[in-house]
Amino acid sequence: MSVQARAKLNLTLDVLGRRPDGYHELCMVMQSVQLCDVLEIAPGEGRVSSNLGYLPTGEKNLAWAAARRFWEALGRPQPPLDIHIEKRIPVCAGMAGGSSDAAAVLRELNRREGDPFTLEQLMKIGGQVGSDVPYCVLGGTALARGRGEVLTALPPLPRCHVVLCKPDFSISTPELFARADAVKLRRRPDTAGVLAALEAGDLEGTARRMYNIFEDVLPPRQAARVTEIKHTLIECGALGAAMSGTGPTAFGLFAGEEQARLAWAQLAETYQDVWLTETV
Ligand code: ATP
Fold it and tell me: What percent of the chain has pLDDT over 90?
């Protein structure tokens, strides 16, 4: 039986400061989309495989790490399960693909074992695998604080169309955090405004306020590419556009499918990695 692992977007991303333990204190509004990886979990030899040759196959794969943590928490020896991942979520794109696979493994193993863990317990086990995993276990629209693991479910973002575009450069996450520490941020997301708009079921008000502080700390050439993608999305009728996570994927939210298709087609003329999806 196959299991879906959905990608996430950051409607907002703010770094509130550096903590005594060296981690950054984050404040993010997260949203799941229908774009997903598909996992098959079946009795086998304890292997992980995927349609992408370069992904780790052993314990470095987050799906495998999640399975190990699940059986550890249950206090039972890990049975030899094979996990195959059909990757559709772009890798290293700021969309929590690996974390989402880990969360899907936790949810599925819990279901198969007759729900020995509550959702909260499962999220806690997920936190041992990675800081985005608890959110991926929860899914939907949520506020994430701390390192990303302190979660509050929010009123769902009204359903809308999403166009995602990943420019072909990669950004190192530690480098982005270091740059955020070093500069004075010129702009911060209006998180309170986004929360109020979500409460009011206001898609336009939410989309208009989306922002990610990492957009401001990208090196100039990369920032220009993200800005260009955002402009195209807005010109085609997006209600708002932002970069997700540590990038480089930028996305736009659309009320109508026709405008979203137009944006997809326009971006696909220049970029190879462009997707059309919907919020969950
Ligand atoms: P985030 O948004 O949480 O920062 P990301 O989208 O930037 O994540 P991922 O695609 O999750 O990044 O993968 C980042 C790294 O994790 C890659 O170097 C990859 O090799 C490794 N990895 C381990 N397991 C997986 C998996 N199941 N799927 C994708 N990447 C994985």
Answer: 94
